[in-house]
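Annex B. Sample input.
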Amino acid sequence: QNKEAIQQQLEKMDKSNEDVKKQIDRTLEQFKQLEVEKRINEEMSALKKLAEAQKALAQKTLEKSETKEELQKQQEAINRKFEELKQEMQKTEEKNKAQESPMNMDDTKQDQEAIQKSLEESSESIEKKQNKKAAEKQKESADQMEELAEKMKKSLEKSQEEQAEEDYYTL
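Annex B, continued. Sample output.
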C-alpha cells in the first residue's frame, strides 16, 4: 500500500511538471508575440518620423532654401534610414513567422518597394536639379510611408483581435 501511495505521488508530480512546462511554453510564446508587436510599433513610429523628415525636405527642395549638395545629402540619409528600416521589418516578419502561432500580418513588401522607388526618384531629381519633380516625389514617398504605417497599424490591431478571440476560445 505504501508503494501505491508513492506511485500516485510520482504520477501527480509528473502531471504537475507537465502543467508547469506547458505554462512556461505558453508564457514564452506570449513573450515572443509581445516582442514582435513591440517591434512593429517601433517600425510604425520610425516610418512616421521618416515621413515627417521627408515632408520637411520636400519643402526645402521646393523653396530651394539649401544647396543641391545639402538636399542630396539629406535625401540620401533618409534613403539609408528607410533601407535600415526595411531590414528591421524583414527581421520582424521572420520573428513573427517563427512563432508557434504567427500573427496574421499583411504583406508590405510591395509598399516598401514603391517607397524605395520614390526615394530613389527623389534623389535622381535632386541630382538633375529638378526641384519641383523632386519635391513631388518626396511628398509622394512621405505619403506612402504614412500609408504603410497605417496599414501596419490596422493589420496589427486585426491580428490582436483574432488572437484575443482565439485565446478566449482556448480557455
